[in-house]
Design goal:
Length: 236
């Protein structure tokens, strides 16, 4: 029998991802309302929008509980554009809900937006450039929350965190809505908070794109091979 003796205030929200197993092929498209312009390019709905929202609400509650202890100092929430914009917006708004509804604690935030350009330098190591934050010195001695859509190889996030660490913030936490369970097992970065662990498929929707398509789709979907071919950039 389930142990129901624990008090409700001991309810523990997982910071680790909800794991979507390899055997789960997603939901048939026929159960969802999908934009006509993408219907033929998608194989299935892997994570419906509503479930994404529920998980974000839980993450917001967990992050609020963990990080409010730093008040009255601001938490600088950094949105990694473009893919992170929906997640950032919904996560911040759900933390704001906690702030509105609780009288015992609060978490003040400020919001920053960056893009990360990655390139391989002449020593064949990954380098990144942070675009959009005019003065990275402003991060010195501050509490930082980096908000990312997906961690795949982890190379970009590892480089981004290393770059931000150079400016010596007081704390850095990373939250990613998705982490990918790569078949080659080569993900080099584990975020502090993760929404879902997804199988090694290319996923789109909820601001995640394939060559700038599919950001305008609500659900997290898996693409058909024909869809991948259709939107491939010639020569890439
Ligand atoms: N979807 C969209 N963008 C990505 C992915 C993905 O599966 N992996 C890395 N960037
Ligand atoms: Mg992208």
């Amino acid at each position: 029998m389930a142990d129901t003796s624990k008090k409700s205030d001991e309810h523990h929200i997982e910071s680790n991802p909800l794991v979507i197993s390899d055997s789960f092929e997603g939901y048939s498209l026929n159960f969802f309302n999908l934009p006509l312009h993408y219907r033929d390019d998608l194989k299935s709905v892997l994570i419906p929008y509503g479930l994404v929202q529920d998980r974000i609400e839980a993450l917001a509650s967990r992050i609020f509980s963990d990080l409010h202890i730093h008040i009255p100092e601001q938490l600088i929430c950094i949105c990694v554009l473009k893919g992170g914009y929906r997640f950032f917006s919904d996560l911040v708004s759900k933390i704001q809900n906690e702030n509105r509804l609780r009288n015992d604690r609060s978490l003040p935030m400020s919001l920053e937006f960056i893009r990360v350009r990655s390139y391989v330098n002449d020593r064949s190591t990954e380098q990144i450039e942070i675009i959009g934050l005019s003065d990275l010195n402003a991060l010195n001695n501050k509490h930082i929350l980096i908000i990312e859509d997906i961690i795949d190889t982890g190379v970009t996030m590892a480089a981004l965190k290393t770059e931000i660490e150079k400016f010596q913030p007081k704390t850095i936490h990373v939250v990613s809505l998705f982490t990918k369970r790569r078949k080659d097992k080569k993900c080099i970065f584990k975020p502090d908070y993760s929404g879902f662990e997804v199988p090694d498929h290319f996923i789109v929707g909820y601001a995640l794109d394939y060559n700038e398509y599919f950001r305008d789709l609500e659900h997290i979907c898996v693409m058909k091979e024909s869809g991948i071919a259709k939107y491939k950039i010639p020569g890439s």
